[in-house]
Amino acid sequence: MDADFEELSHDTDIITRIKQFRDITLKIEDTIKYATDPAIYEKLSNTDKIEYNLLMSYCLNSMFWMYLRAEGIDPAKHRIKLENDRLKKSMTRAKQINDRKTLMPHINKDAAQRFVRNGLWEIKNKKK
């Protein structure tokens, strides 16, 4: 079964779209190479590593979701739906933990030392 692409050579819209698709895939490839650089990952804090891992999982699941759609498979009926739900719960949990750190009251050490120092101060008995 030989494909005759001569017909497509006259359709400039298809050629333009194919070139755009190629350019976008090259940009995605460059971004993935940058995002998966181990040197960058090692510099991240633990919180940033968690966010990074969740983001990478989300991206991979999204790519697989698009692949299933391109193949004509309904992703809503696939196991990937359960994985996406699990990932959403993990992202929500990570956000709650991060928010708890920022909203939690912090102790002002200097003020606490002043309270303790002044609370322990006693009036000296004056000689009568």
TrEMBL record:
Entry GO MF terms: DNA binding; RNA binding
Cellular compartment(s): Cytoplasm; Nucleus, Nucleolus; Nucleus
Extent of the signal sequence: none
Gene Ontology cellular component annotations, sorted alphabetically: cytoplasm; exosome (RNase complex); nucleolus
Assigned keywords, A-Z: Cytoplasm, DNA-binding, Nucleus, RNA-binding, rRNA processing
InterPro entries reported for this sequence: Exosome-assoc_fac/DNA_repair (IPR011082), Sas10/Utp3/C1D (IPR007146)
Biological processes annotated in GO: maturation of 5.8S rRNA; regulation of gene expression
Cross-referenced Pfam families: Sas10_Utp3 (PF04000)
Main localization (coarse): cytoplasm
Function: Plays a role in the recruitment of the exosome to pre-rRNA to mediate the 3'-5' end processing of the 5.8S rRNA.
Family recorded in the similarity comment: Belongs to the C1D family.
Subunit and interaction comment: Monomer and homodimer.
The protein, known as: Nuclear nucleic acid-binding protein C1D
Native organism: Apis cerana cerana
